[in-house]
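Dear support,

I submitted the protein below through the web form. The confirmation email said the job was done, but the results page showed an empty box. After a refresh the structure appeared. I'm attaching both so you can tell me whether what I see now is the final result or a partial one.
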Amino acid sequence: MDWDDLRIFLAVARAESLSGAGRRLGLDASTMGRRIARLEASIGATLFLKTPQGYALTEEGARLMAPAEAAEQAVTAASEAASHETGIGGQLRIGAPDGCANYLLPQVARQLSDAHPGLEIQIVALPRVFNLSKREADMAIGVSPPETGRLVVQRLVDYRLHLAAHRDYLAASPPLTSRADLRHHRMIGYIPDLIFDRELDYLAETGVEAAAITSNSVSVQMQTIRAGAGMGIVHDFAIPFTPGVVPVLTDEISLTRSFWLLRHADDRASRRLSLLAEALAQALRREVTRLEALVRAELPSADLTARQKVKKISST
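What the results page shows now:
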């Protein structure tokens, strides 16, 4: 049994399909199937059962997981020890909620690529929790620390959110001077049954019972707000990317949340991934600080604009 066979076995076990594993390794499904059949023949045991849901590990397959992962760690460590490059190369797959992936990780990826030209960065943006045990990503960014799983959890940075709306919407809508006025406004937020983490239930903190327009995507919510369709709770770091959108009621509604970096516990032995995790953390902190500073610089003028608009409407 050689490492290449174990590499294919691990990919299928984690993806639970030949096609999914093949995409990760750059091989077609038929080749993956032949390699798994060859491995099973060589050890005299069936490793997978094909079910309607995909490929499931048998008892023999489950027993092979631990030694296969140990081999994976050994190969990774040997590769890192043999490398004398000043930069860090190879593939790095980062999983993140779409708000972070859209508004923060592009700038972070640029910084990492500049520092490590041999690095291939993959950003997987999904509004859900990533399964690192199945190696859906090398590391993931979450909005709350997980309570279970063999993970290394690191708090990255706090970020702020405020109620925001486009200036055109504010100019055409009823006055907004306090939280009580929200009942006269169209709200935008998450689809309630698709909120995958309790930390994302923003509207509950405004006192608004339901939103008129909803999406499971932060980016879709932000673009809907930018279109002047209503107002919603948004990340401060996203506001600089949406001209015309301004924070409102900042003295009454202000939320703070945190990003967490999640890694599989077995990856602590990887110097490469540890260095990349620290570089990612530092770059993300800098980017949140930079973008939120831009918003704070505009807050006085934004609040003044809103108050002048309210005063104008009230006097007519």
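Response: this is the final, complete result; the empty box was a page-load delay. Confidence is low (pLDDT under 50) at residues 304-316.
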